[in-house]
Amino acid sequence: MTQRALDSSGEQTPGPSRPAMIDAGAELDPVHPMEPPPPPHRPDGLSTAEVAERVARGEVNDVPVRSSRSITEIVRANVLTRFNLIIGVLWVIMLFVAPIQDSLFGFVIVANTGIGIIQEWRAKRTLDSLAVIGEAKPTVRRDGVAAEISTSEIVLGDLVELGPGDKVVVDGVVAEADSLEIDESLLTGEADPVLKRAGDPVMSGSFVVAGGGAFTATKVGREAYAAQLAEEASRFTLVHSELRSGISTILKYVTWMMVPTAIGLIISQLVVKDNNFKDSVARTVGGIVPMIPEGLVLLTSVAFAIGVVRLGRKQCLVQELPAIEGLARVDVVCLDKTGTLTEGGMDVTEVRPLNGSDEAYVNEVLRTFGASDPRPNASLQAIIDAYPAGGEAAWTVTDAMPFSSARKYSGAAFTEADGTASAWLLGAPDVLLPEGDATLAEIEQLNEQGLRVLLLARVQGDALDAPGAAAGAAPTALVVLEQRLRPDAGDTLAYFADQNVAAKVISGDNAVSVGAVAGKLGLAGAENTLDARRLPTDPDEMATAMEQNAVFGRVTPQQKRDMVAALQSRGHTVAMTGDGVNDVLALKDADIGVSMGSGSEATRAVAQIVLLNNSFATLPSVVAEGRRVIGNITRVATLFLTKTVYSVLLAILVVCTQVEYPFLPRHLTLLSTLTIGVPAFFLALAPNKERAQPHFVRRVMRYAIPSGIIAASATFATYLVARHHYSGEGALEAETSAATLTLFLVSMWVLAIIARPYTWWRIGLVAAMGLGFLIVLVVPWLQDFFALKLVGTTMPWAAVGIAVAAAALLEFVWRWVGRRFGA
């Protein structure tokens, strides 16, 4: 069936040819539902009194902007975890059966959880404040005056104006349409724009790709379609994150290992060994607690949260936290020239009449052309600035066709001062001129200088959108524009080159001109340009062309999307920057979409990262932050999981040999603090420029498993030797002290390996942790507090010797793993 729209009289008129499910018994199309007759069009919009009445009745778009989790959700997520429950139960038990020093692990968890809540709360404040700054302000007509207002101030019946790039913020019915084309792909998945006429419905979440108009709001607040979707999936949804999913996988396996091992340990210590009950409970808990890598989850959340705060200070809005991680994996960044390498503004440097055209006449055409579009793009704005409308002009605009990135030109029809009717096109010369035209050679020379050239051509007749109108247009003049280069763009491109990130400039402009601009900014391979109209359609061939060239011109919106897909098919992680509507599809499909704050609302809606200061120079900071987070979490995860592995293995060895568990909780709290907790915090926040590698779980476990096995074996060997060496009263405390010394030294060596490459502060960090343990060993009251006292000289030196052998084995294993499986 053909969808039909209703005009203001209530009669049906043909609407755009588009399938619509309105048959009896059919399920309603959620994007194009059956609507009641639209309200009558009121060109002046609502009056102030009517707005006040609607606000009083609650007919206002009051859906709260939810850019992050609420405080309640943050507290719940940080407190109510599986491991916090386990540790909480063990903590309560220890408070009843052992001295306070054996309950220190509980206080550490409380402190860590508090830090996590505070950091995420800070990130929430940053996100919320930046979301308000970046929020779109639709233009609403009231009392005949158009003004920008907050989205939340729109009321039922408001007349909302639309232009290219504007997002439809509430549901409504088109009241005015001027070649209005709306992209509903965010709702339907269909990429083709839909031509809208008066009476057609528009849905929140769609956006304008061409033309302009206005619509009357018919559904606001939670009744709007986009708001209903937002209720089901708020903005704070976590996109796929290898880091988070990898940690979840690790924790799942840890749980499986921990449960049977803990049960065996409990039976071993409480049933088989006839020891003091409270001491047995304490040693059992001491064996269970270190199996839990609870700090790893916390540290990951803190690292993400701090990343959000850091980027927020640089006016960078991170709309999805894992986007920080995604940036660490980027190896190709696709840049849109306009607004990224160049500033938004342009200047007309020259107008060259063609075919004997009169210069004064051409100037008048350009002056009137500028007045034909109420929402000019950057090129037309430059013409308006150069040829402002004069009060004496007698020309009138009779028709206008806004610029479309698919067409590559715009159009306008006039009635001239003498009553003559004329129609004109203004756009890309290589689109409007036939191939081989002599004028193209002249244009090519200008393009090679990095100048942008538009062709003004006269259309036969006055039908702008008639089939073949562009093909029959008569060239009248060349308009030469010079783009303003961003002063910081060159340094940014140099940064990407230094970080082995390939930059691809993708533009709708002429390829040679774009290449010249990129060359001025020092882009490597800027001479390798390709006109996208010659780009192969085969995905594999397109991927090859993308890898071989650095600059692409005359790219259509769909091609941008295909180019991103082609790069991804070769295993590349792609970031896409853009600020125009023609970038939306590519931004959606890229691994990371980066939008300029001044860009269209549509691009900001689909991008994971919004540069609110519109500065391309912010991107290096964003990429560096991503690499810092993922690289450092990968490092410190090895520390946490080494502890888990040696704790599980020690428990198994204790169960199998039926001996007392060597450690009390206080011993492992001390070791965890000095060899994992404190250093991991500093290492997680350190600078890190290495591009993240895939297979997080595999990369971490291939080091953690052998390290944990070596640490557990060395520690248990020392413990067994000490059991034969010591006897009598206090023997167990001496045995524990010797085993603790070995475990500390081996764990310190793991830390020393992970801290590489060394800098002054890394060396100082490792030395400070060693000094802390030494102080515990030599200060009497700390010896008593932690129940650590080395007895004699033979066994302590034996413990050191075993640790040295284990350290040498660690070095060998780490180097072998690095050679065998890659760094």
Automatic annotation (TrEMBL):
| GO cellular component labels | plasma membrane
Q: Where do Polar residues bias regions lie?
A: 1-15
Q: Provide the protein's localization.
A: Cell membrane
Parts of the chain that traverse the membrane: 79-98, 104-121, 253-272, 292-311, 636-655, 667-688, 700-722, 734-754, 761-782, 794-814
Q: Where is this region: Disordered?
A: 1-46
Keywords in alphabetical order: Membrane, Translocase, Transmembrane, Transmembrane helix
Kindly give the InterPro entries that the UniProt entry links to this protein: ATPase_P-typ_cyto_dom_N, ATPase_P-typ_P_site, ATPase_P-typ_TM_dom_sf, ATPase_P-typ_transduc_dom_A_sf, ATPase_P-type_domA, HAD-like_sf, HAD_sf, P_typ_ATPase
Q: Name one Pfam family in it.
A: E1-E2_ATPase
Please report the stretch or stretches of sequence annotated as the P-type ATPase A domain. Answer: 138-232
Principal place where this protein is found? membrane
Its membrane topology: Multi-pass membrane protein
Q: Which domain of life is it from?
A: Bacteria
Which molecular function terms from Gene Ontology are attached? ATP binding; ATP hydrolysis activity
* Protein name from the UniProt record: Integral membrane ATPase
